[in-house]
Each structure stands twice: as C-alpha cells, then as structure tokens.
Design a protein that fits this description.
The protein has 198 residues and is an alpha/beta fold. It is built from 6 helices and 9 strands; from the N terminus they run H-E-E-H-E-H-E-H-E-H-E-H-E-E-E.
Length: 198
Amino acid sequence: MLKDKENIIKCLKDGGVIAYVTDTVWGLGCLPDNEKAVKKIYEIKKREAQKPLILMSNEVYNLFDYVKPIPKIGQILIKKYFPGALTIVTDKSEKTPDYITSGMQTVGIRVPDNEIFRQICEAVPNHVLATTSANLSHQPSAKTYAQALENMSGLADMIIPDYGFYAQGLESTVVGVMNNELRIFRQGQIVLDEKFLH
C-alpha cells in the first residue's frame, strides 16, 4: 500500500520535512529529535515561534516516553478516542525537546486513525513525528492531496500520496489534561460528552 518507505525514512533521517494524510487534515512533520528539521517546519509555515508542534504516532504507547504519567481522565479519553481525531495536551517529560513545545511544559499527543499515516509511523525511527497542519499559518488546512500539493510543493521535501485513504477535512478536538481536569482548547471533529467536563 504505502510505497517509497526507504525514501521516506532517508528523507526524515536527513532532516527532511514530509507532508502526509491523517484522518482529519493533512499534516507536515519531521523527526522530533531533529531541531533543524523542526525549525524548517516553522520556516515553511511562517509559523509564530510561540505556537508549539504536537507529537503523533501510530500507537499511543510510542508517545508515553514523551509525557509525564497521564492523569486518569486523560487515560479514559485515550481508551475512548484513540486512534481518532483527539489531541490531548498534557505535561511533557524530559524527552520532549523545548523547541517542539515553544518552551512550554506541556505537549499535545495524538494517534490519527488513518492507514497511510499508520504505515508511515511504523516505518520511521521511534515511530513518532513532530507535526502540524500542512498549510501556511493563518490559511485553511489542506483537506485533499491536491490542496497539500498546492500548499507544500517546493516547500516540503516529500508529499506522500493518500492512496485513497482520505482526510475527513475537520481538525482534531484539542483538550488539555492537567491535574485530572479537562480544558477544551479547540472543539473539532470529536464533540466531548459533557460528563467528561465535570
């Protein structure tokens, strides 16, 4: 299904930035331990330095090293909504570099429900990507391969086809989980039940 795995791995190991489909909108990502590649994402997007990237993987346990133990309410959300269109913002561990979080002590984690994204993550070292949406800041997110090409041609080092596994077109819901309390930062594809907010 996913072709070109060797080139994708080589591109990322060489500090490259790739664009790819997820279950929500198209993403732009690199290896989290490559500061130069992370800076390149900010340059490509013309993104404000105070806006952090998030970490995504094909399996949630690949992300656990990057965060402190997740409060119980966060674990409930993970069981219910991962993989899926939910980003959980929680306290980061020492493993997550400050250049990903814009110096903040928290980081967003997500496991997209998309077969092509899953196969990309399975192939790459550590199975984790530092990621954001594949568009210039303050412009709409790319929802299709054609829009990703339009947004990222000449900017991303590789734009990986979706092979028919399309994005839904609506951003993920972003929720903060600190001290076992929830705070919704962005209401997206998943509408959280009221019971989670009490």
